[in-house]
Amino acid sequence: MAVVSVAATALALTPPASAEAGALSLTGVHPSGATYAIEVPRGWNGTVLTFTPGYGQGAGPDHLPADLGGDAASRAWLLAHGYALAGSRPYGDGWAVEETLKASADTLATFAEKAGDPAITLAWGASMGGAIAAGLAELRPDLIDGALPYCASVAGPVAMLNQSLDAAFAFKTLLAPGEDAIKLVRLASAEEEARSTTAARTVLDAAQQSAAGRARIALAASFAQVSTWSVPGTDEPAPRDWEAQQAQEYAAFMPTVFSPRHPLEQRAGGNFSWNTGVDYRRQLRESGRLQQVRALYDRAGLNLDADLAALAKAPRVAADPRAVSYMEDYFTPRGRLGVPVLTMHERGDNYPTVTQARAYADAVRHAGKNPLLRQAFVDRPGHCRYTGAEFVAAVRTLHDRVATGRWPDTGAHRLNRLAAAYPDLGTAEFTAYHPGRFLRPHVPR
User: In which domain, by residue range, is 185 found?
Assistant: First the structure.
């Protein structure tokens, strides 16, 4: 299915026989315990979008029904214009990438059985689910013809949690060196992680009350590349408004830097993060935040070089190789795309940070698959807060690439113009943007 011929493109406009009789709507449970949902409209155009959800959205013993992706407005538009929708919700919880990859394949098999073979299959997913869509693009190009990961952790869990470790390491070393309750890795239980997070929050809030504390928070935030425009509904701080930028970093610091680690370590079988050999002086220089951090240190009367020297001398954290291997398999992109991929990120996202888009693009380029990738950026803070118009513009763009074999113009101007054709679906804020280098990329050998 990865290569669509002219004949297949024509099929995309002809409803399979099983869809001709009318609409199909069904939900169910796979033998694994994963749930699925399928919606096929009257006059199906032969294309199905298969959705995978974000972190912590497992079906569980109650068999919660699967979602179909996008938002209510975009789903309604897609169904009204002939697209079929399918969704999978894994039985596993947390970083359930392994289960979700299998559940996606099972759902597509069920779709083919109930509705007929699609002419075009597009995978889309949110956050962790977007990483799964990217995984399908590399691991299962036999199942899909294109992928739309949105607000997705496309740098992979190893890289993402390494950056979190860097920031947490700097935070504890400089602001809470004697606070044993704050644990960086190898958390024994959910209760221990909760105590650690509570202790870190107490230290963070106290530090935010002083100029010295704010400067050190900004330094730690630079290593995780926490956005200086993080809070939905706020204006972006001016380029040299260092205090306002730091306030935005502070607001996003805890969920970005101390995001859940214990469930991921349990799944991986150990600690998969490390900072051995990391040069934090270099990391600050390459973060794009050196000017901001130096200005805040100067205002606080602190010695930045002394703090960087303290980080250089502090004991480091080593990873468990088997745990790293598991997170590479489930799933760290290698960039070896088998189908076209269009990613979509908000510029002020932190879960993941927008620089993950750059890490993914670099991996794809190094794998020699750059012609298969395009990336779109939305000019707002927050996580997975796209409008229906933005979703539809992205889906149509990817569908055109698969159906014709050529990318249409994926620039911000064209995407905004396309989205403007659907005023009932909200406004679009695509923007021309080139994210900075991701500081801790990890591509499996």
Answer: 157-326
